[in-house]
């Protein structure tokens, strides 16, 4: 995706998150209000029924104790502001004839035929039903009961006041919905910006990397969420990429530096052979020299490639269970004559249980490099000790020589590519042996270390630690 499309994309994501948060808040508020609305509505209706039920019982007792005449007088002189004045009250004889009827106000009209019909349908001791006023007016909640003489008493109340309260409640909700929507929008905007902030930091870093700044890293915050983990992984990826690029550059620098000499020799011998008149033997020697120098170049390139692959963990290791002592014996059989020619005494202290999960070919080359290094720097008549030490979780390979040792200044430099100490300038070498050892051992999740001096200011001891289960 081009950088020109990043801002619109982020804008769309931010807008979607903001709208989604606002919508969720509005829907949540609506659900909560609906629940409260129905709870309040149900509570008010139950309250109205409770009032009607108590009035029905009160009027029934009044009629049965004091008579219908006194009951009529009660409603005749009741003031309009009294609560009872707002009630519908009707009394019917056992034959169904209306003996008394009170309506709350003149405009209140009830279909009496419908009322009688509903009463006939509900013949229980206490019954309840609802019906509407004539001409589509308010709904009336009606409770009725049967008196001792068989007469029927009904008490009703309009739901107008209840409906008014509920409508006011709805208006309050609609007025509150506007600030809720505004809060939802602002909150969503804040949260979306906060959520996308790490993404913007990633984009900023990517733009700097696009401009060539591989050292750029995304700042890590104090939180412990998925986006912080993404930033950590992104920085680790950048570290690896920077290491690969740096290693590639360094490899090219080393390549140019180290193959210049054999290439110059190769070209010189070839040029000499072409410009001089010699016999077949001189041409053969020139070709032999060219072959040897080209072989050195190929060997150098192969070792450099192996080191780079091991350092970057891109080389596939052929892990198998091997006894390290067996690998040491194989390599020693190749170096035995070289040590004898230099009159160097070799002491082997091998543990027969020193197995580990390793790439046998690479670890054999590690052992060979350490022995070659010991052979190179141990003076005639000296001593080299190679031992393996078996532990529960790891195996140690230790190679000790009686050479001049390494100076303290060189202690951290011996692992660098192409580094050669002043003591080794007279010896042939590529300066990659210890670098290869370190890269391969660390690729096995092991450790390599050096200790100097070993005894009386002389000697060097290299120790390789390999895990049993790599």
UniProtKB/TrEMBL annotation:
SUPFAM superfamilies to which the protein is assigned, alphabetical: ATPase domain of HSP90 chaperone/DNA topoisomerase II/histidine kinase (SSF55874), HAMP domain-like (SSF158472), Homodimeric domain of signal transducing histidine kinase (SSF47384)
Residue span, HAMP domain: 193-246
GO-annotated molecular function: phosphorelay sensor kinase activity
Tree of life domain: Bacteria
SMART domains reported in the protein's UniProt record: HAMP, HATPase_c, HisKA
Entry's EC annotation: 2.7.13.3
Compartment(s) where it occurs, according to its Swiss-Prot or TrEMBL record: Membrane
Protein name as it appears in the record: histidine kinase
Annotated source species: Bdellovibrio bacteriovorus (strain ATCC 15356 / DSM 50701 / NCIMB 9529 / HD100)
